[in-house]
Structure formats: structure tokens, C-alpha cells
Amino acid sequence: HNNLARLWKTANPGGPVLFLKDATKLSALDLDYNGLDEIPLNALRGFFELRELSLRGNLLDQLHASVFDDLQSLKYLHLQKNLITSVLRVTSGVPLSNLTELYMDHNPFDCTCESILWFSEWLNSTNVSVPGFPQSYICNTPNAYFNRSVMDFDPLSCKDMTPFKALYIMSSTAVLMLLFTAFLLHFQGWRIQFFWSIMVNRMLGSLKDERITEGRYAYDAYIIHSAEDRPWVERSL
Questions:
Q1: For helices 113-125 and 89-97, angle between their N-to-C axes, nearest 10 degrees
Q2: DSSP letter string, 179-211
Q3: Which positions fall inside the LRRCT domain (predicted)?
Q4: CA-to-CA distance for 149 and 136, rounded, in angstroms?
Q5: Residue 209 sits in which domain range?
Q6: Same domain, residue pair 195 and 140
Q7: What's the CA gap between 100 and 78, in Å, rounded?
Q8: In a shared domain, residues 151 and 225
Q9: 135 and 45 in one domain?
Q10: How far apart are CA 44 and CA 77, in angstroms?
Q11: Are 43 and 60 a contacting pair, CB within 8 Å?
Q12: Are 19 and 112 in the same domain?
């Protein structure tokens, strides 16, 4: 019940004040109701003998991934009545691995795959004593789980969607290509057929033996004309 929030502020001039750095032999640490809204990355470094940590009634939300990594002897953890929305393995894996009792009730949990999947599975399978579970572990977001227990979270909704996304992209691409081809043939099919015919005839013409056609024609080029215009074509043109 003090106001220690500023000491651990990252924005503090000179950085956060690590006032516990010489107390690493502690076995119990009580920091309840101190207005703490963040824990510096190195605030709990070296606390290998800490067995009980109480941070209830603060304003903690986002925690650094490795802030609890040295708490390998922790048996009792109190984090109830904070603003914690997500509990991730990368953050809480170490302290929760050897716990005897966990108190994390009355937090506004975000019951989404990214925020709560691992914690939900851990709660449903752990032998650790979790007083208040499930009635005091309530989802705040999203709307689908608002005011429902974390135990109601459906892990099946977090199946890997990558194969389905790939199938969706492939099928969508195929449909679009089919539509594009249909429209192209409908509006420009005659042009495509015309150029195809020219290309085929040129290829076939180039394969003919010139000796076969040699002497067959009187002229290299011929001007199409009517009989009335023949004198003008032959004499003038």
C-alpha cells in the first residue's frame, strides 16, 4: 500500500530504479497495492530462492517475456486484481512450472487464441491449487466470451488454419483465372484465333521445301485488282 510505480517506470530519468537488486536472498516478497503498472526486465533477476511473490492489486498488464525466468523456486504466486489480459507460455512458463498455489483471479482476461489458449489448457490440466477457478477467472474480451469463465474457452477454435488458408487462396486463384479466361475468350476470342492461325501458317510455311515451290509463281508479289483497273495497275502502279 505504497506508491512505488515511478521507481519501476521505464520512462524514469536514468531508467527504472532496481531497489531490490541487493535482496536476491529473499524467500518472500510482498508488493501488493503499490500502483505498479510494469515490471522492469531485470527487476527480479537473481531471485533463485524466492518462494512466494505477491503482486496483487496493482495495474500490471503487459509483462516482459523473461521477467520471471529466474523464479525457479517459486511456490506461491499472487497476481489477482491486476489488469492482466494474456498469460503466455514465454512469460509464465518458468514460474508456473513448480508452483503449489496460483492466484490470478479477477483479471480482465482476453479469451482469444493468442492470449489465453496456453493458459486455458494449463488450468484444465494442472495439479496446482488455483483458488477461485473457474468462477473468478472471467473473460472480458472478445464479446463472444464476455463475462464467461476462462474454462468455457474452446481450444478447437485455435486449430492451425494455414492449410485452409492455402486451399482458399488456391481455389480463389483458380476461379479468378477461369473467369478471366472466359471473359477473354468471349470478347477477344476471334482476335486470338486470328493470330493463332497466322502463327501456325507461318510455321508450316517455313517448314516447306523451297525447291518444291520454286518456279511455281510468276511474281514475288501480286496486287489484287478488278479487270477494269488492270491497265492502270500494270502500267502505272
A1: 20
A2: HHHHHHHHHHHHHHHHHHHHHHHHHHHHHS-HH
A3: 107-159
A4: 8
A5: 161-234
A6: no
A7: 11
A8: no
A9: yes
A10: 14
A11: no
A12: yes
The DSSP element (H or E) to which 163 belongs, if any, is helix 162-207
Q: Running DSSP on this structure, what letter comes out for residue 59?
A: -
Give the whole-angstrom CA distance, residue 77 versus residue 63: 15
Which of 71, 115, 119 lies closest to 95 in space, CA to CA? 71
Neighbour count for residue 26 (Cβ, 10 Å): 15
Considering the domain architecture, whether residues 148 and 169 belong to the same structural domain is answered as no
Spatial neighbors of 49 by CB under 8 A, at least 6 apart, are 24, 25, 26, 27, 73
Domain count, the chain: 2
Same domain, 69 and 178: no
What spatial distance separates the first Cα and last Cα of the chain, rounded to whole Å? 110
